[in-house]
Input
Amino acid sequence: MGPLHRAEAEAYLQRFVDKDVYLHLETTNGAYAGNNPSGSMAVCAYIRNGRVRFERGSVTGFGPYRVGLKMDQGWIYAEGLTDWEVDDEGRLLFAGHDGDGKLAISLELSFQPFEV
Amino acid sequence: MVNRVLVVLPHPDDETFGCGGTIAKWTKSGAEVVYMCGTLGQMGRNMGKPFFATRESLPHVRAQELADACKVLGIQDVRKMGLRDKTIEFEDPAKVAEQIQSVIREFRPQILLTHYPGYGVHPDHDALGFAAVLAVKGLGAAERPEIYAHAITHNRLQTLGAPDIEVDIADVVQTKIDAVKAHRSQSEGMMKRLADGSESDEAVRKRMEQNFKKEVFWYYNPDHLPDTLWLS
Output
């Protein structure tokens, strides 16, 4: 995984358009985020192997980047993406890492279900 | 004499916070204002203070607030564009521009007010500003309204220079405050912090105070619009 290249990533993303694909989408600020005096709270959400189909996909921003996938009846959205990779299985992996290199968000697409 | 103004902004309250005083001055002097509002601000995080809206009720709440604020500002004609909050940058800009162009052709505004592409901070501001300028760019010289671009980024004065237009809104400040209050779900928390002096961010407080004194805009030459908002 390395620094996200907007145009290259957007070009690769087009392979997944108008096909049934599996989605992993996750955001988290860490399980310990609520354990501090400032009163902030731990927040996390993820969907693993959501089966989706989208008609338009774009990567935007100047870094960190955003991805938007337009579906027939809805949207998939991720903000704060810094890195990307196409893995050995051709899956498209995006992630956003904070200053400490910790994962804050990830969005991944695959034609086969992700391992559970 | 300004007779017809088209306002193109993405969120209910954008017409009030950044340019409500200017719009009120136009309508009070008899100008007709059409407002193309891109979204219903469906993804907003402000839910009122104490919160009274839910993620599902928020668009309905904001649609009513929009109607109320527009009444205060004297905007007679609100056109909801039907886009979704936080997604305008992922739409095809040419299609969004087409929608705006058809209203320009019908309404023939002298001025089009929108966000300055690249200086909007919120991606929806940049994307809709881009589409609005693109719409004007596609018109012949005689059909083109003058573009008043609203810039928000902190670097705006350094990179754009002094604003081309400065509007003193002292005479309509109460109208602007009433419009801000009409956007209750979005403004309640902020107005409370300003009133009781608990706004801890000095920059935010200064900005808000300035906002009730004058509003500033830059002209945008549509021929200078880049091909995309993004680097290759």
Notes: Chain B has nine helices and seven strands. The longest helix of chain B spans residues 58-73. The beta strands of chain B are 4-9, 32-37, 77-80, 111-115, 146-150, 165-168, 214-219.
